[in-house]
Amino acid sequence: MPQPKTPRLAFALAVLSLLPALRAADSETAPVETAAQHDARMAWWRQARFGMFIHWGIYSVPAGTWQGKPVPGIGEWIMNKGKIPVADYEAFAKQFNPVKFDADAWVALAKAAGMKYIVITAKHHDGFAMYRSAVDPYNIYDATPFHRDPLKELAAACLRQGMKLGFYYSQSQDWHAPGASAIGGHWDPARQDGDMDAYLRTKSVPQVRELLTNYQPFPAVLWFDTPTELMTRERAELFLPLLREHPQVIWNNRLGGGFQGDTETPEQRIPPKGIPGRDWETCMTINDTWGYKSYDHDFKSTATLLRNLIDIASKGGNYLLNVGPTSEGVIPAPEAERLRQVGAWLAVNGEAIYGTGPTLFGDEDGAFSPTEKDAKGQPKFIPAWEWRCTTKPGRVYLHLFAWPEGPFRLHGVKFRVARAYLLADPRRAPLGVSQHGGELALTLPKEAPDPIASVVCLETE
Ligand code: GLC
User: Can you tell me whether residue 53 is helix, strand or coil?
Assistant: First the structure.
């Protein structure tokens, strides 16, 4: 017979057993799930490692230029940066007719890139909904000559092709709705001043409801953005009942009001040591803008994109890589080309990325500079690009960027290697392995099989 517990002890134990279940431990109103339920909900996302971010909206019409002048900054911010009056910006909707949009082709491109999910802007800060919304006629179906709902088409294509689809929604900033936030302040007060609570009640919350209900089984992800100071705790809580009705949806840490959501979202950077204890996803532009700018040709090389993906996987995160389609509905060719190259590498080496765990080592990724400071005054992290490591039960993957002259040597090895081979070798011919204490030496062929990253798989005992 178990000992009867005192009521106080029983209460304390009951409270303790609930602790890991709180998704936002500081809120009584937060949805509750057990740690096991949470892991089950996050499983596909943790497996995925690589997703496509799509910033697409009527900002692709001006494409970075207003009244003949380039507007500095990221393309989807042109309305704000250029202080474009609301009525003038609205006119872009009438010129937006992306007849070349082909949902199946976009999804096929994401697949060819080896991406496992897509997150697309359903409404960005400009307030224009890229789907058919009954809540506000300022949307692609009702306000453009296009008269189609790309999110419906994408949802169908994703279902057909086995891709997860998520929606980005700017819940706090809306430069078209009176009362909503605008970072930097309103510039068209006659159109923009108003009541934030009314905006939330009549547009933001109802549109999030539409997105959560009209595209089933999607969205798999709800990606909030720019929680401004107007997004107080009480206001952010307005979204919680909707999230609770759709408990499978993974949402990020940008709702506001102190809610952490499911994922951290480092932007344009890779956290040097990952984010232990949290699921995280680095979102990054492929050039220097999210939304299309006709003159931004500063595309990252395929080598950079691949190294980023490998670096992120070795630190336990996901890579959400952005593309910015044109106003015709086309993903620019240099972007598509790079994605296909990343996909070709993944077709050979994907088992060293998908569903992997982080490195067993940790110093190979670089070091904090003893002298240099970063923008925040912290010691600057100087990455090293010789190799990275990812893991799976019974497997250690070494991603070699720099091909050594002689054998590849590892120190501090705490496992025994049973077999080693290159993933690029279809025959998987065994590589020479010598192991003494924590020292491991691998004999490699003279030439690297891949000029960017060659992966050695170590099968462990
Ligand atoms: C920023 C920008 C936005 C972009 C987002 C992507 O917060 O405001 O334009 O959508 O980052 O992470």
Answer: strand
Tokens of 33: 């799930």
pLDDT tens profile 274-290: 999 999 999 999 999 99
**How many angstroms is it from 225 CA to the middle of ligand 1?**
7
Do the bridges between strand 117-123 and strand 50-54 make them parallel or antiparallel, or are there none, so unpaired?
Answer: parallel
Please tell me what DSSP assigns to residue 77: G
Q: Looking at ligand 1, which residue's alpha carbon is closest to its atom 7?
A: 226
Burial of 14 (0-12, 13-18, 19+ CB in 10 A): exposed
The closest of 238, 237, 249, 325 to 286, measured between CA atoms, is: 325
> With contact defined as beta carbons under 8 Å apart, do 389 and 359 qualify?
yes
Distance CA 344, CA 305 (A): 13
Q: How many residues does the chain have?
A: 461
Give dist(CA 458, CA 240) in Å, integer: 45
- Mutate-to-test residue for ligand 1 from 52, 53, 55, 74, highest number of ligand atoms within 8 A of CB: 74
The rounded distance, in Å, linking the Cα atoms of 373 and 58 is 39
Handedness of CA 370, 372, 374, 380 (dihedral sign): negative
Residue 183 CA, closest ligand 1 atom number = 8
What pTM was estimated for this model as a whole? 0.93
Classify 399 as helix, strand or coil: strand
- For the segment 23-57, what is each residue's pLDDT rounded down to a tens digit? 444 444 455 789 999 999 999 999 999 999 999 99
Burial class from Cβ neighbours inside 10 Å (0-12, 13-18, 19+) for residue 424 reads middle
